[in-house]
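Researcher: Good morning. I'm working through a list of sequences from a screen, and I'd like to move beyond sequence-only analysis. For each chain I'm collecting a predicted structure so we can compare shapes side by side. This is the next one on the list. No need for commentary yet; just the structure.
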Amino acid sequence: MTTDPPAPDEEMTAFVERLARRRPELVRLAECLSLAADVERSLLRRVRLRFQPRSSSGLEAELWFSPLVEAAGEHSLQLDPVAATVLRRRLASRPREHVEAVWACTREAHAGAPAVTRWFEELLWVDVFPAAVPAAQLDGRLRRVLAAVGAAGEAADELGRWVLHYVPRLPPWLLRHENARRIQVVSCERLGLEPPPDPFPRPAVTDEEARALARRTVPVGVSARSDGLVLSRPPAPGSRTVFAPGARKVRLEVVSAYAGVPEPVRLEVWEDQSLRLRFVVVERLEADGRRVMTLAHPGSAEEVAAAISAEAGAVHCAVLLSEGAIVLHGPDGTPVGSVPTGADAPARRSLALSPGGSLLAWIEDGTARQRDLTTGREVTVEQTGRAVVACHYPAGGGELVLTYEQQDPSDPGRPVWATDRGDIWARAEAGDGEAPEPGAPVLVGHAPWQVTSVARSPDGRTVAAVGGDARLLHWELPPGGEPVPRETRLGFFADRVFAHADGGWTVAGTGGPLTLTTEDGDRYFITPDTEDCATAGDLASWARGCVVAVARWPGTHDGGEAGLRRLADRLEAAREDGVDCLAVGPFLFTPSDGSQTPGARRVVHPPGWESFPDPGALLSEAHRRGLRILADIELTAVADGPGDPPVASVLGFVRWWLDHGLDGVRVLGRHVPRGLLTDLRHLVDGYDERVLMRVEDMSEPGTTTALSFSASCHVMAGSFVTTPFLLWADAHDANPTAAHTIWGATSLLLNAAGPGVQWGYPLPADGLGDERRRLAAAVLLGLPGCPMLPLEVLRETPVAGLLAVRRDHLALTHGSARLLEPGVPGVPALVREHGNETVLCLVNGAARAETRWVTTANLGGGPGRLLDLLEGSVTECPDDAPVPLTVEAGGVRWLQWLPPGPPRPGTFTRPVPGTPRVRASDVRE
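Model: Good morning. Structure tokens for this chain:
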């Protein structure tokens, strides 16, 4: 790139020349100030006295209010940038000694100015003799500033504010440099601003690369709610944490997996902000529950209307959005038109669609309006002058029916209705067997919730109801005995249902699965928990399926602020590893040293803990990053001490931590007194969303090569159970017996858990080689419950990838579990199911690759595919034909069952590091 500057602005050049002929002293003074970023009164006087000593102070005032000045305040002025460029050209034509003296005077006056001011003036000096500065040297200066504004910390934020003030004032030839543009973009990114328009043609990648320099990994809380998505910074308690690049704000794209045309919704999440993104979902079902069409809209829907016998090409569904617009959809769910509304238009309501899908009606400002969707002609329906409160089309076809304000808007002759208690009633029809005369009310059945919408099929033989959860209930007519409704499971929360002439249904509601994409391309599949929570006593909701990372922290002897920064760095690293819950300690209770009350116990803190001025800083730093913290307390010495159990010191210690926000306690030690455990449970029960875990002492590793399992356990606060899980204490790869025991031990673990119990699986720190330890961790991550694994193991490959996949699939954290019959010794097949999601977990503990045969009957029936969640490959599964699945020696495979049909948008996984990412477009028939 050439550094030769273009000719200055011709109009400004001509103006300065005219001014120089009339007022040469004024222009000469301005020339001597053209190298200054800001001209203070002291600098103005110094320059005048040095370079124009015969002038009076009136010259200063004349310059202060001259057209050469862009802005002047009480203490300083700034020259017009274009005028300053012309003045520097005039300065460059003066003798070199004079020019260098001007530069020296400017530098001396601003020797104590901020670094950004001195940097800007150095670039203005380059503008005087641009040919004398090599391009590499100029780029080096720009790169130094770029590195400064791209650094972390508040100082860089302040620097960015000054940079945005100064950079636009640089000469145009300097602004052509890509680093000058990058400096602007990075500064804007730091401050959460949009960069200014680029006056020079540059590829878009220049801005994108510059923005990446200011980004850091930012935790964002994600909660899938019944009506959509909630994003929070910092992550809100109980939310799932995803990591996205960003600075002051984080940019994300969200797409509903049910969107007919998956247009992303672009969101910006700022610091200390929460956003709620709502989605309305409409789904068309056949009579047997098979999905025909699904659509989704961002935003809230006031009302939904559906055609019950729409023809091809007609409108099948209309959605009235909260802002008043009506969106029309065709048979495949794609938008086919809309009825917009003005900014000040009255609210719309009572949306109605004719059975054939050709007429649309609604009420606006007490007046019924009808639009012919084939011609687009809109008319006001004739009425009696009274306000219309409701409108609808007869199910069998016909003209629009209006209900006026003096009438009861509820149709007294409606064919089916529900009471507040959930009772479903219908009017009897001729031929209903033992039913009363036609038109008499008949009790159809009872719903388990308050019904929000009910519909009857056109043939009068089926009634369907929804009540705000993910179920569509069906009753057959005429009812008999104590009718039990048939359920159709949905992937969203339904609150409206419409009947169709072919026996099918249209169901409308909110929520549904979503795809969230970050700026660096990482995608997360967010699935709301549409299942009823499994009975788990008073277990904290966040602990269900949580992975506990066991860390011996803080383990640093840095005190004060240095120690806190070190702690913050460690917590940030753990969060980036995908950890949600961290167990720290252990805090060791020992017998009294004689200086305390008899029977008391002394607490020995982990190494380096006492160097922190406030141990509660750990909790505040962790919660700010979305981490849960458990404290490990070692009570072996308590059990071995003489006399009564010293419960007061233990309870006081735990209470102090709980008062400061601790999320739970893990009790370690042999034979902890039962009374102490009961007191701890009662103490923890007094705090919301806390857990108490009892980790039993693991037996010493023996010489057996078999997997060892102990069924003894303690049920503690929150119905939480932990049990030892020992793998191959003294095994080698060639031993097939060790591999065979995986199936039996896994079966034992699953069968031992009763209803309302959450299992925890600690992994012994000693007695296992690295490979066996990783394999054991992989087994535990596939099981229901809470694996408790050393933090360093969770960072290893492939365990880190398994942890990421587990976080993205509710079937692996909240789902049920069932073992398939053992087909190959040592290769158990575990099926995890939650809602419509099914994941098959395979593990091979043998010394060679093994092939496990699986049929689709084990997974859901019918043809389909298995998507490998770790490597992205897809295996076709014919109907009821055995499918071979090969697992490498010591390997693990997690495969998601995909039913027939194209995958939904957003079906993907976060792969193991080093493997290619899998996107929806990569999975094809």
